[in-house]
Each structure stands twice: as C-alpha cells, then as structure tokens.
Design brief:
single chain; 385 residues; alpha/beta; de novo design (two linked rop proteins); Rossmann fold; 2 domains; eight-stranded mixed beta sheet; 15 helices; 45% helix; serine-type peptidase activity; FrsA_esterase
C-alpha cells in the first residue's frame, strides 16, 4: 500500500480512496504536501488541517469549472466538478462527528456531483427510493443495452463511504461496459441517509433492501430476474444479509468480507488492527444512533452472519485482500464456508501477484474490479468479452 503519510494509515487510506476513485495524482500531491508534518501526530489530531487543504483545492476546481462554463465548455466543467465533489467528500469524511463545517462541505460535494452529472450528459441520475416515511437516495447508472432490458447490481456502502464514492470505483465503469446497470445506494447509516435524514444503521438489512428491489421491479428497463447485490467493506455484512432474506436477488458478492463485525469492534477496542476514519468511536456511535459506547456495543451484537448464510440459495462471490489490516482474512473463509446452500460459491483472495491486498483492494482496485465485474456479469447473463 502506498503511504503518502508514512506514519499515518488512516490519512493514507483516505488519500488512496481519492486516488483510486477518480482523483488526479498531481492534484492530490499538491493537496497533501502541506500537511505531511501534521500527519505525524496521529489519526485524530489535525483533521481540521486535513479538511482545509482538500477543501481549498476543491474550491479552486469549482472556480476553474465556472470559467469553463463561461466559455460554453460544459464537458470540461463537468470533469472538474466531479473531482471537486470527490475532494470535498474526502475532506468531510475525515472530520469528527458534530463539526459544523461538515454540513457545509458535504452540501458542496453533493452540489458538485449534481452539476457534474448535468454537464457530462451521462446516463446517470440521482433517484429517491421510498423507504418508510422517508427515502433512500441512490445514483442510478444505466448500461447502454439498446432496447433490451438490463440486469442491475445494487452496490452497498461500507461504514464510512457514500454512493458518490461507490460511483467513482473502477468497478462501476467495468460493469457498465459489460451491459450491467448499477444502483449505488446511501443505505441507512451512510451518506445522505445519515447526514440529511437521520436514518441510522440497522443490522437487519433486508428492511431496506426489499424496498430497493421493489423499486427496481417497477423500472421497465430493468431485467427483474437478474438483480445482483454487491457490498464493499461493511457492505460485506450488509449484502450477504440482504441476499439471505430477500430471495429476489439473483446473486451476491462482497468486496471485502465482514463476517463478524461485532468481533472486529471488540478487537478495535483493544487497539488491534487499523481503523478506517479518525475519531472512530464517535463515528460509529453516530452511524448506529447510539447514545454512548456501551449502547453502540449492544447494537453491534447483531452484526454477524452466523446462522444467516445458509439462507443464501443463489451464486455468491467472496473476495478479500490477503493483507487487509482492518478486517482479518479469516472472516472471508468463515463467510465462504457457511455458504453451504449456494449453488455456486467462489472465494478469491487477492495477493501481491495481482494486487489489491489491502482492505477492499484500496491499494490497487483495478484487477480486483475486473474479477468482480466478470463474475457478476457471468451470473447476470451478460457479456464478458
């Protein structure tokens, strides 16, 4: 894994996400150089400085995009605005819960992504899916299949990601090229659901997965017999649970297994393994709507897949990096071994040979994305050549 900040895994991880999900290495180097010394004081210290440099560069990209627009150059403006949105999200994601600046920076990120979609004129839209008294926000990416109906993959967030970051993964374009549409969602506990609607995470993911499938069934361009589920990071818990209790999913996959997240939290409390974001315990309390750490651990008790996976009766792929420092590799084997009723269960461990050995292949997502895209397309009866 490339450590831009040699002594700081969490800051380096965030930088890698930006690099792998649409950022520019020259821009990111310019952003990060001024905070190299600040990174040496630990994950939680100086995160305001982290925010300022990323936000400042994003502001500059917005100015450049406006100059493009003044000249009628909408495509160029859209490209710059997409990267600005990514950099705003990177800044916001690293801040402590309750920081008032998060609200404003997040709003800027959403605005940039909305405008980018408008100016790039891609077949990508933001949609709202009914969910109880509220809704689930999603980015809907339609494959170019002509008049034919398209299969679709529902892409589920992890603990600290968002639908915009999912949209930026290399996997998105790889699936679209194979004729698979995507629905990148902000499920409860993530993205807009958490920040704008106060929808906190729940262990029984089928309660929000089923309304999503209901919505897909209503879309005339979707092949309702070919709906897949993919989870990234903590989505490695959410997606298998969803597939286990929502039989309309035709297949499922995880990019990073998360078989027993409650056990991982207990290990993190003992300072074992790495954490994904600064101010970690405040973050998880926020995500789960917990009043304190004791309440959080009670809510996390249900976050495991033991006694669940035998309900999966469709093809399922488990992938994991062999040097994942957040979620140990053993959990991938546990998930795979318990898929006893899947007619096709596959396990792929990414090694140094193909790259992608770190958490969710954030060190090198491209070959891993090929593997996932090919497997999903094959299960959903799409082209891989």
């Amino acid at each position: 894994m490339f450590h831009y900040f040699p002594t700081n895994y969490v800051w380096s991880l965030s930088t890698l996400i930006a690099l792998g999900y649409g950022g520019n290495i020259g821009e990111i180097d310019e952003i990060c150089k001024p905070i190299l010394d600040a990174s040496k004081n630990g994950d939680d210290v100086n995160t305001k400085a982290f925010m300022e440099v990323w936000r400042k560069f994003a502001d500059q990209l917005v100015e450049l995009a406006n100059e493009d627009l003044a000249l009628g150059r909408e495509f160029s403006a859209g490209e710059k605005l997409e990267r600005a949105g990514l950099y705003y999200l990177t800044a916001e994601r690293m801040q402590e819960h309750g920081d008032p600046e998060r609200v404003f920076v997040y709003a800027k990120a959403l605005e940039c992504y909305d405008l980018s979609r408008k100016y790039k004129k891609e077949n990508v839209t933001r949609v709202e899916i009914p969910y109880g008294d509220s809704h689930i926000s999603a980015i809907y990416i339609k494959a170019d299949t002509g008049n034919a109906k398209s299969p679709v993959v529902v892409m589920m967030n992890g603990l600290d990601s968002s639908k915009e970051l999912l949209y930026g993964t290399p996997l998105t374009e790889k699936l679209r090229k194979r004729g698979v549409s995507l629905l990148c969602i902000d499920q409860p506990g993530t993205g807009e659901a958490l920040r704008l609607q106060n929808l906190t995470a729940v262990y029984n993911t089928e309660v929000w997965a089923s309304p999503i499938v209901d919505w897909l069934y209503q879309q005339p361009e979707i092949d309702s017999k070919n709906i897949g589920a993919l989870g990234i990071s903590l989505g490695g818990y959410y997606a298998p649970r969803a597939v286990a209790f929502e039989p309309r999913f035709a297949c499922g996959a995880v990019w990073g297994a998360n078989h027993d997240w409650r056990e991982v939290q207990q290990a993190r409390y003992k300072n074992e393994g790495e954490r994904p974001v600064p101010h970690y315990w405040k973050h998880v309390e926020w995500v789960f709507g917990a009043k304190d750490l004791e309440d959080f651990f009670k809510k996390a008790e249900n976050m495991h897949l033991n006694g669940v996976l035998q309900n999966i009766k469709v093809p399922f792929l488990v992938t994991h990096g062999d040097n994942d420092r957040q979620i140990p590799l053993k959990y991938a084997y546990e998930t795979y071994e318990q898929l006893v009723n899947s007619p096709k269960r596959d396990l792929v461990v990414f090694t140094a040979r193909e790259g992608g050995v770190e958490h969710c292949s954030l060190d090198n997502p491209y070959n891993a994305a090929d593997t996932l895209a090919d497997w999903l397309a094959e299960q959903l009866n799409c082209r891989v050549a």
